[in-house]
Amino acid sequence: MKTDNISMQQILSLLSAALLSPLILLLPGETVVAGGRAGWLSALAALPVTLLAGWAFRKLLEGAPEETGLAGGLELAFGRWGGRLVTLAYLVWGLLLLGWNARWCAFRFLATTYRNTPLKLFFFILLGVTVWIGRGKWAAFLRATEVFALALGTALVLALGLGALKTEWGNVAPIWIEDLPGAIWGALPVLGLLGYGVYAAFLGGHMTRRPENGRQLTRWIWGAGILLAVFQLVCIATFGPGLIERMDIPFFMMVKDVRVPGAFERVESLVMALWVLADLALLGMLFFGCRSVLEHWNGGTYREWMPWTIAGAAMAAGLWTVPDAFRLNWLMEKAVTVGNICVGILIPVIGAIILYVRERRRTE
User: Fold this and answer.
1) What is residue 263's predicted lDDT score, i.e. its pLDDT?
2) Whole-angstrom distance, CA of residue 29 vs CA of residue 163
3) Average pLDDT in the 78-87 region?
4) What is the dihedral of CA 360, 345, 133, 5, to 10 degrees?
5) Given CA atoms 269, 270, 271, 274 in this order, what sign does their dihedral have?
6) Most CB atoms within 10 A, among 28, 93, 131, 274?
7) CB of 335 closer than 8 Å to CB of 187
8) What count of Cα atoms within 13 Å lies in the side-chain half-sphere of residue 39?
9) Whole-angstrom distance between the N-terminal and C-terminal Cα of the chain?
């Protein structure tokens, strides 16, 4: 029995809000390392692969049995037991991401605002709020993320618009042919960022199937690619690639110099406060993605033990698998990128190709 009806627009709003949390920590720092002043082109270089992943998600969700979402699509592609092993990998990776990102967000709070506060305090607050959200309904969370996405999107556009007035465009030009290979390699961090979105696809079993869903997803992918390019372009043009590489959060540094006379003398305070909504959207997406796997294994039925199991595993991952902030940063910037590309792009594309080949054989 379907308890929560959600739409593709709500899924895309969740993605828009959730991806802004790791975005400011990863970009443009990682793309500048690979591509220098051409690093902002990495988002455009990632578009073909992202569009392929979008096709894969549509294929898996359309082929999945009713109300099973991505978990059902993966089992259809890889077989019952092969699919169970694949969804187990998604569950384990999702729990690790939940714990690591809760700690990473807590570390960001510590670095940008409350420097004398214990890190674990922020970690437990974030995880506690996420558990409270995760014990509720999918639909209520997704309705909240629509508001989150609107508020965050408005703040982002405002900050980029005002930041563009203080840029030095010589920092991003000229771009020569020899700069392009670095920009292409810079697509990997972008793909790693977008790979988080696979956990939103696990909610697809509760989504109303409409013909326009595919078109909405494709438009969102194009829009996200352009926005990521503009975001990086403004940041790189403001500071230059050399300074970007030495900064922890270039976006927050950029908005520190942005003021709206008569309204906000310190825009960064507003932006930093709003970004907590992005953190909650990301953690909630990961939490519900893990919960959907457990529900699928339990015949589509929710049990009260599920949120507490997820919370316990995430807490263990966040506190005990990474000893310090330096290793956490390396993990989130390097290892998570590789892992997200595997689970967010490679596996879904392989599964979709398997379904496509089967369909072609049946029609021949």
Assistant:
1) 56
2) 17
3) 94
4) -20
5) positive
6) 28
7) no
8) 28
9) 36
Retrieve residue 352's tokens: 């979709």
Q: Averaged over 222-240, what is the pLDDT?
A: 96
Which residues are within 8 A (CB) of 266 and not within 5 positions of it... i.e. 6 or more apart? Answer: 256, 259
Q: What's the confidence (pLDDT) of residue 1?
A: 39
Confidence of residue 110 (pLDDT cuts 50, 70, 90): confident
Burial class for 140, CB neighbours closer than 10 Å (0-12, 13-18, 19+):
exposed
Q: At residue 149, what is the residue type? A: A
